[in-house]
Amino acid sequence: MNPTQIEGTSETAPLRSTSNTVSPLSMTAAGRTFGTTYILVSSLLGSIIPLIQLIIGAYYREDCTIDQRIPTYMIVSGACGLAMTGFTILLSIVFMCFISDSTALHIIATCSLCLTIVSTIILSAFLFIWFIFGCIWVFSIRDKVEFDDRHDPNYCEPVLYKSAYALLVIMIIWSILQCCFSCFRQCCTGRSN
């Protein structure tokens, strides 16, 4: 420790705090989790599904008479998924750029982190609930949907319905794989420390 003399006294003040306590929610620990290339690449790859949802839902928004909520599900899910990807990328960039050097734009980084984290939590909760509704709407009519006769009240555009169905299944599998990979990564990182 490198103390400095306080003017007019015989006391010295330390340049750095002598406290070595680490908060359980340490910013460096969070930075190691969110400020990684894995999170950035995973977010970019994850943006493919919402983009596909948004495009297909918007293109076929009037072509599902059996349940008009399916194209609406696709549009809302795609738009919110892209917003979620943007928040996750912003969070990752903030952690990579600012957390390693806590003096660089500390106030901006803190405000940005708080805003991004709160927005991400709210949007995640909404997307989770919306995902459950999408599963109910799409999977419940699987045996009733008609793909050939546009005038049938059970008609739904095959591209719209089949892509909604497939994307829901892919998202379920993707979520399971993400959880497994994150747990595996945490276990391996925990042992090496």
TrEMBL record:
<keyword id="KW-0472">Membrane</keyword>
<feature type="transmembrane region" description="Helical">
    <location>
        <begin position="107"/>
        <end position="139"/>
    </location>
</feature>
<feature type="transmembrane region" description="Helical">
    <location>
        <begin position="159"/>
        <end position="177"/>
    </location>
</feature>
<feature type="transmembrane region" description="Helical">
    <location>
        <begin position="72"/>
        <end position="95"/>
    </location>
</feature>
<keyword id="KW-0812">Transmembrane</keyword>
<feature type="region of interest" description="Disordered">
    <location>
        <begin position="1"/>
        <end position="23"/>
    </location>
</feature>
<dbReference type="InterPro" id="IPR040350">
    <property type="entry name" value="TMEM272"/>
</dbReference>
<protein>
    <submittedName>
        <fullName>Uncharacterized protein</fullName>
    </submittedName>
</protein>
<keyword id="KW-1133">Transmembrane helix</keyword>
<feature type="transmembrane region" description="Helical">
    <location>
        <begin position="37"/>
        <end position="60"/>
    </location>
</feature>
